[in-house]
Amino acid sequence: MSVIGNKRQRGRPRGFALDTAVEVGQHLFHEHGYENVSVAALTEAIGITPPSFYAAFGSKTAFFKDTLRLYSATVVPLDRFLVPGIAPTTALCDMLRAAAHAYAAHPQRRGCLILEHAKAGTTDWGIAAAQIATENRERVRVFLEASDSEASERIADYVATTMLGLSAAAREGWDEVRLLAVTETAAKALNHC
Q: First vs last Cα of the chain: how many Å apart?
């Protein structure tokens, strides 16, 4: 018995790329927020069926966690800035400038996907976002500590608070020039820490 060529196959359609799907989801969640993006919207945007979505990702929340990890690794990738041997002030100022640029780069996806969702607190997606935000803050603290910074905890808190403020201001509509002006003021403060 032969299979008809156009008969629907089970499982993932040919050409379905997990990384591409996660990036598409990241953009949808960033633009509309976790609560406003349905599985139907995700599957339509990715070009797969709901059963394929659940088989590949498990749940909407698990998929969202994948988008958070992708965002953290690509939008303002800490590994690019927190490099041993680079002066802490230089690394942190460069990171803040990159955040200001990224947070204002896309008119529909302003601010930080992670920090804005971390505000959801006790929800599954809010907890997931807060966990990544905490891990990133801890990476800054460890970098500072390894650089013999005397106030690594305080400076890491300052940087985290500045990034949170940049994200909120970008969501409010501040342009990149205004956000960068804030980072320059923050840089002056970091030079005195």
A: 76
Nearest to 29 by CA among 78, 66, 73: 66
CA angle 35, 38, 43 (to 5 degrees): 145
User: What's the rounded Cα separation, in Å, for the pair 103 and 74?
Assistant: 13
Query: How far apart, in Å, are the Cα atoms of 31 and each of 28, 44, 126, 181, 192?
Result: 5, 16, 16, 25, 37
Closest by CA to 182, choosing from 78, 112, 139, 190, is 190
58: helix, strand or coil = coil
pTM above 0.90, yes or no: no
- Do residues 129 and 83 touch, judged by C-beta distance below 8 A? no
Question: Are residues 88 and 147 in contact, defined by beta-carbon separation less than 8 angstroms?
Answer: yes
CB 53 within 8 A of CB 63: yes
Q: What is the pLDDT of residues 132-189, one digit of tens each?
A: 999 999 999 999 999 988 899 999 999 999 999 999 999 999 999 999 999 999 999 9
Angstrom CA distances, 116 to 3, 35, 37, 64, 126, stand at 49, 13, 15, 13, 9
Write down how long the chain is. Answer: 193
